[in-house]
Write a structure and sequence with these properties.
One of its GO terms (molecular function) is Rab geranylgeranyltransferase activity. Catalyzes the transfer of a geranylgeranyl moiety from geranylgeranyl diphosphate to both cysteines of proteins with the C-terminal sequence -XXCC, -XCXC and -CCXX. InterPro entries: PGGT1B-like (IPR045089), Prenyltrans (IPR001330), Ptb1 (IPR026873), Terpenoid_cyclase/PrenylTrfase (IPR008930). This protein has one domain: Glycosyltransferase (Alpha/alpha barrel), CATH 1.50.10. It is built from 15 helices and two strands. A two-stranded antiparallel ribbon has the order 1-2. It is globular and about 50 Å long. The two termini are about 30 Å apart. The relative contact order is 0.15. The chain binds zinc ion.
């Protein structure tokens, strides 16, 4: 899956906006299908460090668009398994070192493809190995997680670890109470969360902290009203959402803000119509794909998060997304109840 940006741009170029935009389902499907046919471009190889996550973004977007089989399943599965490392984690591409974020993406793809059994046929006790890789990255004193064996800690890695373990039914391998304590220590007076205790509030970190509380079954630990107030202030006059005060709007924040609001039951605190029309204006209506904001180049990351945001907004024609897992709700239900 190529992570090369473009070639299209959001909107109609030259700052023009379509008067009556609509969701371009078929164009987005064709755009995602085209991404793997760009191996002759230098950027394809420069983005190798994100490849497994790219597959997760593309595959999830296709599921939300109602075209789950638009990419060759066997090829995807073979590629994901080729990224598995002896230490139990996954790298971004074959031969890369394991990292928490790619391990989560790989687990999400395996689950979405309903391929965990096939994975274990090739990697005996593979699920347990993944579980141990993740559990070993928890700091047993503070509760938070490192991303890899080099030790950088971040609430993103804690959330990613819990999410992957939850999909594998292996949450018992880590100390969840300590995760909740750590999230509480990252909460600021405005009700939102930063990347570590005392750090500035930021929407993406809010998503990882609220998501951790949701996975722990401890949403009661959030200061819901203050947090929802801070999140709703992220909406700008053009309908888009930003990550923190004084910053530009960006389609990916529509996901991090909206999903957090959905998890705490405050989705109605956002002007849904204005946000929907903002995301529509970020589509390339001719070649498909969604950009971070109108006029910029499209890419698979913003295509995925734009569609996931529209799904949470109840956009007709899209499958329902789960706000915590950022995967099709149907898939999450199959896994958690199965
Ligand atoms: Zn973005």
């Amino acid at each position: 899956m190529s992570l090369v940006a473009g070639p299209g741009r959001g909107g109609l170029g030259d700052g023009q906006f379509s008067q009556n935009p609509k969701l371009c389902v078929d164009k987005h499907v064709a755009y995602i299908q085209s991404l793997d046919q760009r191996r002759d471009e230098l950027d394809y190889w420069l983005t190798e460090h994100l490849r497994v996550s790219g597959i997760y973004w593309g595959l999830t977007a296709l599921h939300l668009l109602g075209h789950p089989d638009a990419l060759p399943r066997d090829d995807l599965l073979k590629y994901i398994i080729s990224c598995f490392c002896d230490d139990g984690g996954f790298g971004a591409a074959p031969g890369h070192d394991s990292h928490m974020l790619y391990t989560l993406s790989a687990v999400q793809v395996l689950v979405t493809l309903d391929a965990l059994e096939e994975f274990e046929q090739q990697i005996p006790r593979g699920k347990d190995k993944i579980g141990r890789f993740i559990a070993d990255l928890q700091n047993r004193e503070s509760g938070t997680f490192a991303g890899d064996r080099w030790g950088e800690e971040d609430t993103r890695f804690m959330f990613a670890g819990l999410l992957a373990l939850s999909l594998l039914h292996l949450k018992h391998l880590v100390d969840i109470d300590k995760c909740v304590q750590y999230v509480k220590s990252c909460q600021n007076f405005d009700g939102a969360y930063g990347v570590s205790p005392g750090a500035e509030s930021h929407s993406a970190r809010v998503y990882t902290c609220v998501g951790t509380l949701a996975l722990a079954g401890r949403l009661d630990a959030a200061d819901t009203d203050a947090l929802a107030g801070w999140l709703s202030e992220r909406q700008l006059p053009n309908g888009g959402l930003n990550g923190r005060p004084e910053k530009l709007e960006d389609v990916c924040y529509s996901w991090w803000v909206l999903s957090s609001m959905a998890m705490i039951g405050r989705l109605h605190w956002i002007d849904k119509d204005r946000l929907t029309s903002f995301i529509f204006q970020c589509q390339d209506p001719e070649n498909g794909g969604i950009a971070d904001r109108p006029g910029d180049m499209v890419d698979v990351f913003h295509t995925h998060f734009g569609l996931a945001g529209l799904s949470l907004l109840g956009q007709p024609g899209l499958a329902e997304v789960d706000p915590t897992y950022c995967m099709p709700k149907q898939v999450v239900e199959r896994v958690l109840n199965g």
